[in-house]
Amino acid sequence: MVELLSPAGNLEKLKIAFAYGADAVYGGVSHFSLRIRSGKEFTYETFQEGIDYAHKLGKKVYVTINGFPFNSQLELYRKHMEKMASMGPDAFIIATPGLVKMAKEVAPEIPIHLSTQANVMNLLDAEFYYNLGVRRIIAAREISLKDIEAIKAALPELELEVFVHGSMCFAYSGRCLISSLQSGRVPNRGSCANDCRFPYVLYAENPETGVTFKLEEEEGVGTYIMNAKDMNLASHIDEILKSGAVDSLKIEGRTKSPYYVAVTAYAYRRAIDDYYAGKFNAQNYQKELHTTKHRGFTDAYLIHRPFEREGTQSLESSISEGTYQVQALVDEAGLAFLVKDKVYEGDEMEILSPEPIKEKVKNERGEIYQKEDGKWYLKMHLLETPKGKCYECIHSGNENPILLPAVLPPFTFLRKKVKE
């Protein structure tokens, strides 16, 4: 069965990914990873805790060491690899041939996965890295399924991983200097400022007269000229799995919200399981994925080549929107929730749970019930903390846990629909 691989931006997101169906997660520590912000959310101690947690569940953790080092950093990378290897991860994710060589010397027992930053799109490059000792290649986002099939046919022992969901890079993944030029933040060193998401105004200059004038746009065309839509291949999971060429389906998003991690793992877990059970239904997964914040969706390049289609860019806005607002997150004990948005007494909130809700509940704190649409809901009659403090309304930012009317599965989300 194909592996479902989710992002782990911190320890909480790691646990949420596993709760909602991921088989493995990827994440990193410090600036050696290509997501500096999420790397800072892990310490060596919490990352070790995450690895131990995963292994108790029979699941895996892959370490991102996929930066592009300068000479002055090589010894730092070596020490970091030694430190990470001592934790017993299931693979290193590496982007450069030199660091592949270093990893083979430092930790020959740790499998190496080649980062998508290496932009492998053909058999020749895949064969080169395979002969170098790479166990798995995370293909470039721009590769086609036909090319994946060709690589698998020639190198059946090489594992192949593809992105199926998440943000798209304006350039070949990470090979962009716009952020470096404008803000000094280097994408291939983990600090991309996402300058492709900004609106731009275009000007033209006449070099003979020195006159500069603004180029006026057609109404509705937009100024987000480099803003890519988000990848969403949920409707094509059946085609991908039918090929037999893909070993792992990867979801992008280490810096995204816990809710995003939960919903994407939940939707793609269902898509995978439904495919193997012979009841694949793309509409079910898309409905759930559209509840997350996104910039519009595209099925990108795996199924369709870039020159065969348009619609991969969102030109009018880079604002992320979804159909639901998260109100609260149930704690790891399942006894209380933490507020993420304003919650009033009497509010009805839909339940998104990693496990099926089995029983209706009604007491002085609130009630849990199922509607005709088959979904489960929670209505709170009393907003009370474990210390006995009560609220009529509790706002986001308030860190007091609110007691539930009954135990719910850990990491259950409570949400409200904001639009169709």
TrEMBL record:
Please name the GO terms that the record assigns under molecular function: peptidase activity
Question: What keywords would UniProt list here?
Answer: Hydrolase, Protease
In which domain of life is the source organism classified?
Bacteria
Q: Does the keyword Hydrolase apply?
A: yes
Q: Does the keyword Hydrolase apply?
A: yes
Q: Could you give a single Gene Ontology term from the biological process aspect?
A: proteolysis
Q: Name one Pfam family in it.
A: Peptidase_U32
The protein's matches in PANTHER family, at most eight in alphabetical order, are given as: PEPTIDASE U32 FAMILY, TRNA HYDROXYLATION PROTEIN P
Family classification: Belongs to the peptidase U32 family.
Protein name (database record): Protease
Q: Which species expresses this protein natively? A: Hydrogenimonas thermophila
